[in-house]
Amino acid sequence: MEENRQLERELLSEYNLDVKLFEAMGLKIKQITPVRSVYRIVTDRGFFCLKKLRFPIEDMEFIFEAVEHLRGKGFCNTFSVVKQKNGDNFIDFKGEKYFLTEWIDGRECDFQNPMDLDAAVCVLASLHIAGEGYSPAICPQGRCFFGEWPENFIRRIDEMKRIREQALSKPGKSDIDKIYLNYVDMCINDGEEALLLLNKTDYKGLSEDAKRKGSFIHHDFAHHNILHTFDGKTYVGDFDYSIMDIKMHDVGSLIIRNMKKTNWDIDKALDILEGYDQRNPISYEELKVLVPFFLFPQDFRMISRQYYIERKAWDEEDYEDKINIKSEYAMMRRKFIEEYEKRVL
Amino acid sequence: MTSGYGKLKRHDLKLLVESLYGLEVKNMQEGDRGIFLYTDKGIKRLKATNSDEAKILFSASAYEHIYNNGFRQISCINRNLNGSYHMRYDKGNYILQNFTKGRVYKVKTREAAAAVGKALAELHKAGEQFVPAPGSRARVDWGKWAEKFKANSISLKKFKEIVYMKEKINRFDKLFTENVDGFLENMQCSCALLKENGYLDMVRQAMARNQITHGEFKKHSVMEEETGGVFVTNLEECSYDICEADIAVLFESFSGKNKIELIASAAEAYSSLKPLGRYSIKIITAFLLCPKKFYKVVESAYGRRKNYNEIELVQKLERSIKKEKRKEEAIRFLDSL
Question: What's the ipTM?
Answer without folding.
Answer: 0.81
